[in-house]
């Protein structure tokens, strides 16, 4: 008896041919996206171009996008007239310390609201959310008087301590993300001998990198560009942040537009670097959490 080998015909996938109408719609969509991206990038491109121009080409019409000579001194001259180095150092200290405080305090509070059952949990959470309804202007004077009586005005403490005491929106955001993680992980961790701290450190935090990335980028950008709070609490020039320093530079040397654009561009670099480093977590957090902004 001979075995008859039956061979199946090899499957050859067909190449999908795009119809002319489909190609036209794609080309139109890409064209609109490219035009929109270029349109939104024009202010940034103008800032880069102006930062490398001589003064006499700043107000020329039509705009000279590529100057005949690149003036790199525009990035050096502002440091000779203003202590930009000290301002950048102050901003980095405040932003770095605040970022650590926000992620630590907010994650701990959100973990308690999301995973630990205790009496009055929902009531306390509603009270926390109610603080989001109070405008900053309502609490500005009492808060300033409190810091003044403590004798810490014109220091970094009024800018740092509130960031270590959690925030309503950030806590709500993380609490909703933590609540979406199945509780079976907690049960498995308890079987292995983990307590609440172990669950927080070994289970919840490693699984929450996308949400933490969203908070890290948004809070880094907000603290770096924060103008209102330093304006209220800081008086000495040597304690100014970059946002205050740029405003002071603009007021005292309003004709130095190329220098102002150069310093503005330099001030954007840390935010851009932070976004490119954590953009993967940022995009994942936006997709998972459904936050649209």
Keywords summarizing the entry:
293 residues; mainly alpha; disordered N terminus
Description of the molecule:
This protein is an all-alpha fold and 293 residues long. It folds into two domains: 23-70, no CATH class; 77-289, MetI-like (MetI-like fold, Orthogonal Bundle). 67% of the residues lie in helices and 0% in strands. The protein has helices spanning 20-51, 77-81, 84-115, 121-130, 136-150, 157-160, 168-179, 184-191, 196-207, 209-225, 228-233, 242-252, 257-289. The longest helix is centred in the C-terminal third of the chain and has 33 residues, at 257-289. The radius of gyration is 27 Å and the shape is flat. The termini are far apart.
CATH top level of the largest domain is Mainly Alpha
Largest sheet: none
Class derived from helix and strand content = mainly alpha
**How much helical structure, as a percent, in the residues?**
55-70%
Residue windows where pLDDT falls under 50 for at least 5 positions: 1-5
Overall mean pLDDT: 83
From the spread of the alpha carbons, the general shape counts as flat
- Which strand-content bin applies to the residues? under 5%
Using only C-alpha atoms, the radius of gyration works out to 27 Å
N- and C-termini, Cα separation: 73 Å
CATH topology of the largest domain: MetI-like fold
Helix/strand order: HHHHHHHHHHHHH
CATH superfamily of the largest domain: MetI-like
CATH architectural group of the largest domain: Orthogonal Bundle
Number of helical segments with 4 or more residues: 13
Question: Structurally, how many domains make up the residues?
Answer: 2
Number of strands: 0
